[in-house]
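User: Before I run my own analysis I want an independent prediction to cross-check against. Here's the chain; please return only the structure tokens and, at the end, one sentence I can use as a sanity check.
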Amino acid sequence: IALVIAFLGVYLFAKNTVDSVAKDTVWHNISVDDMSVAGMKDTEVKALLEQKQAEFGATTVVLKAEEAKVEVLLSDLGFAIANIDEVVTDAVSYGKDGGVFSRYKEFKALEENALAFDLEYKVDPALVADVINAQLPEMENSAKDATITRENGKFVITDEVIGVTVDPEASVEVIETYFKEGLAVTQNRFN
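Assistant: Structure tokens:
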């Protein structure tokens, strides 16, 4: 009987521990990228990530073609966090499924090792193409051969001009890949 009482005591302790956090609340030591979401409700985590998405959207980035540069807002490119709902669900549901002892094991593991969920980013290819096509006149210039002409008995040499052309489809792919690859995006750091 003592063994049953001891087991029951351990079971109740573990159950009390894992049930101490509500089903819609994130456990301790869990973050999304570099933001702690510990103790937040699912609606709070979602609001935080949507706020971050809006902040990133207000960030100006520079599109370059050789020496030509055009500044655009990330929101103009249809920038978004691709996995908001998935991250919210995963952060809130961590350690909430399974038996009491498996959940307790996950709870205790968080004391040793923090759990971080990564955000994935995306842009809208149609909006990126629209921005690139609208900016083509500013970014492209035609190549011109060097010329030699004779004016007033003297030779006049005109230097060549190296042309710049932009391939809109390839540019869209490069920009999409940049964000899909999960590059670290910080508010002041876009190259």
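Sanity check: The longest strand covers residues 60-65.
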